[in-house]
Amino acid sequence: MSNKYLSTSQYARKYGISRMHVTRLIKSGKINAQKVGRSWMIEENRQSLNQINFEKSTSLQRWNKIIENKFKKRLKIEQSKDREIIYANLHSLGLPHERSIAFPFGNFPSKKELEIAVDRLGYPYWISAVPNPKFLHLNRESKLRIYDINTGFKFISKLPEKQNYKIIVCEYPENPKYKGTLLISPKGSGIAEFITGDRHYIMSRGFTLTDPMLFDQNKIKRYSKTIDKRNQDDLYNLVRGVYGYLEVQYGKMNGKYSISFLDYNNEQAYIEIDTIWKDLVNYFQKSKTSKNKTIYGLPASPGKAKGKCVLIHHENPGMYGKVENGCILVSDTTTPEMTQLLTKASAVITDLGGVTSHAAIVCRELKIPAIVGTKTATEKLNAGDLVQVNADEGEVKILS
User: Fold this and answer.
1) 338, part of any domain
2) Could you tell me if 187 and 114 lie in one domain?
3) Shared-domain flag, residues 382 and 311
4) What's the domain range around 116?
5) Which pTM was predicted?
6) What pLDDT score does 74 carry?
7) Which residues are bridge partners to 398 per DSSP?
8) Which end of the chain is least crowded, N or C, by CB within 10 Å?
9) Tell me: the pLDDT tens digits for 360-379?
10) Hey, which bits of 96-210 come out as E strands?
């Protein structure tokens, strides 16, 4: 049977990301594609978008550093994320998690020591490089889904001030079926968002559309359409009675497919979501009629605002100068580089993104009303349109 190929436009529509972002992912090697004439063709029957050798620093950490430098305000998020502590907390909660081997500060591993650690854990693996919290100028770095020793050792070898990093080598699932993020309040209100395959970084950074699962301590109130209900039931049974921020995956480890958790945090910045949870429950219960003058999206940060629209795109900094105090910021998505723009806006509307994304967390921290995942805001809204934003209802009304 012949392979099915998608154009960049078809791929963008299917996975809810911009065409420009698809092209960028192809050029960076994150999507397997072939140039045919002047067009990229993406082979759909392969795992075309994944995290093999994906290298990253945490974007939420970048948000925090920019806000602290520019506005002298600290977000209520962690400065350092120590995997040993995370896995210990997950273990105490009775939640399945990855195995790991840590090399403490001042004990930087040799290539042979890294090889022994990986041999113990198996392939694929990933590395978390955690800076000593005393050195705020150093960033947390990670490299995901590694299949050989040389790639991993090359990654840690280029770290600055190696003696000030803890190196943690962790298991990584083979062929992940889905990954997800959960926010659960101390009252038991829960939001979970998922993405299929091995593409969690796209979801956490707000570059895709999401479809949330909503639950309380009594039942699942709304199932996501992204993964099958049985997986959601299994996940719900594991997290009942737990609160905090969790990242989860379903993949093959130790020879079988299973759920495992790879992140946990119970800081207030992550879990002050009872209002958002109620807004989402109401949003999905309310009938939404198609109107030319109304746009709908997920309530991500509560509040209301009225103002004139300014349209920008995250990959076009030349448009950023248009943003003025009190405007309604309309964009495909938001990034840490747009922090100063967010603080000028009276509300934010995006085509992409979910309520567990880093940008949504930051908007809630900064008390900026936000509606995400509208799909079409940048197409239906024009620069200068006067709109009424009701982020509690997930509704944008075009007034003139």
Assistant:
1) yes
2) no
3) yes
4) 54-81+99-171
5) 0.84
6) 62
7) 387
8) N
9) 988 998 899 999 999 989 99
10) 100-103, 125-131, 141-146, 165-171, 174-184, 190-196
The Cα 41–Cα 46 span in angstroms is 12
Nearest to residue 144, comparing CAs of 186, 204, 85, 91?
204
Indicate the residue among 155, 171, 187 that finishes a domain. 171
Residue 49 lies in a domain: no
The whole-number pLDDT of residue 234 equals: 98
| 161 and 181 co-located in one domain | no
The DSSP call for residue 16 is T
Rounded CA gap, 58 and 86, in Å? 16
Residue finishing a domain among 221, 239, 271: 271
Residues 104 and 37 in one domain: no
What secondary structure letter does DSSP report for 392?
Answer: T
36 and 59 part of one domain: no
Mean pLDDT per 10-residue segment, the chain (400 residues) = 74 72 70 83 62 64 69 60 90 96 96 97 95 88 93 96 96 93 97 92 88 97 96 98 96 93 88 95 88 91 97 88 94 87 94 92 92 93 96 96
Is 298 in the same domain as 376? yes
- 303 contacts: CB under 8 Å, gap ≥ 6: 347, 367, 368, 369, 391, 392
In a domain, 93, yes or no: no
Query: How much is the pLDDT for 257?
Result: 95
CATH code where residue 197 lies: 3.30.470.20
| Coil vs helix vs strand at 144 | strand
Within 8 A by CB and 6+ apart from 341, the residues are 312, 320, 323, 329
**Secondary structure letter of residue 108 according to DSSP:** P
Name the strand (E) or helix (H) holding 309: strand 304-311
Q: What is the pLDDT of residues 117-175, one digit of tens each?
A: 999 999 999 999 999 988 888 888 999 999 999 999 999 999 999 999 999 999 999 88
Share of the chain residues as helix, strand and coil, in percent rounded to the nearest 5: 30, 30, 40
Rounded Cα gap, residues 271 and 77, in angstroms: 11
Helix (H) or strand (E) holding 314: none
User: How many domains are contained in the chain?
Assistant: 4
